[in-house]
Amino acid sequence: MHRTVGMLRDRRFMSTKCHQDDLHEPEFDESFRQQFEELLKWRRDVRSFRSDPVDARLVEHLICLASLAPSVGYSQPWRFVLVESDGCRESVRANFEHCNREALNLYSGEKARLYASLKLAGLRDAPVQLAIFLSQNTDHGSGLGRITMPETLEYSAVLAVHSLWLAARTYGLGLGWVSILDPVKVNRGLNVPANWKLIAYLCIGYPEEDNSSPELLRRGWEATLPVRQVVVKR
Ligand SMILES: Cc1cc2nc3c(=O)[nH]c(=O)nc-3n(C[C@H](O)[C@H](O)[C@H](O)COP(=O)(O)O)c2cc1C
């Protein structure tokens, strides 16, 4: 059904350790902080990819780095599915096309015209497609931290996605998150257990172009909220 990827051996992708037993405490200096800030500003959601292939070992390395994300009770509830077969990819594409048409119908006038003009997934050209699921019944973590807030299990998987997103960018890769999908059909199409909850379907590859601002901002779909508008003091 799904195969477990082996550990990486290639030194090109070993600059960042995947394991937490590194004894040398790193020092994050000002230059690192500046670069990290650049990384946050240039992360971006990418929907148009070049056809250049992505080294499979790099993909494994990114999954390894994503697995360093925090998780409630150390539950590590994320499950990664590398979607490689034409049949599986086609089922996700058809799923997206259907859901995107339905979403378009919810808008009218200028907003509908703009929505129809947006490219909201790179499913046709992304060389790597990765689905991230939540194993909802995991015993890992023995329930610690999620008795009062069970949704923290989902937050944990989302954090793995964000870690992967940032890590991919450091290798010049772009990532696009596709959520315009019927999750039940994704489970069926990828033949994964019904109790795995779809968290993210990711398109990954080398971007057609880099940007420091969101495409939906540039295309006039939505404006940036000033930080002062989203902070309250009590
Ligand atoms: C949970 C989640 C789901 C998303 N789903 C989609 C999607 O289906 N299609 C799309 O084009 N972008 C999707 N995005 C990307 C957002 O549109 C994007 O993050 C936002 O416009 C800000 O742009 P930026 O990521 O470039 O900063 C999603 C992002 C998140 C966090």
Topology:
Blueprint: H1 30-42, H2 56-66, E1 78-82, H3 86-104, H4 109-117, E2 128-135, H5 152-170, E3 174-178, H6 183-190, E4 196-205, H7 215-218
Antiparallel strand pairs: 1-2, 2-4, 3-4
Helix pairs in contact: 2-5, 3-6
The chain binds flavin mononucleotide.
Please explain how this structure is put together.
The chain contains seven helices and four strands, in the order ααβααβαβαβα. It has 234 residues and is an alpha+beta fold. The chain has a single domain, classed as NADH Oxidase (3-Layer(aba) Sandwich), CATH 3.40.109. A four-stranded antiparallel β-sheet has the order 1-2-4-3, sandwiched between helices. The protein is globular, with a radius of gyration of 19 Å. The site of flavin mononucleotide has 11 residues, from strand 3. Flavin mononucleotide binds next to strand 3.
Task: Provide a quick synopsis of the model.
This protein is α+β, with helices and mostly antiparallel strands and 234 residues long.
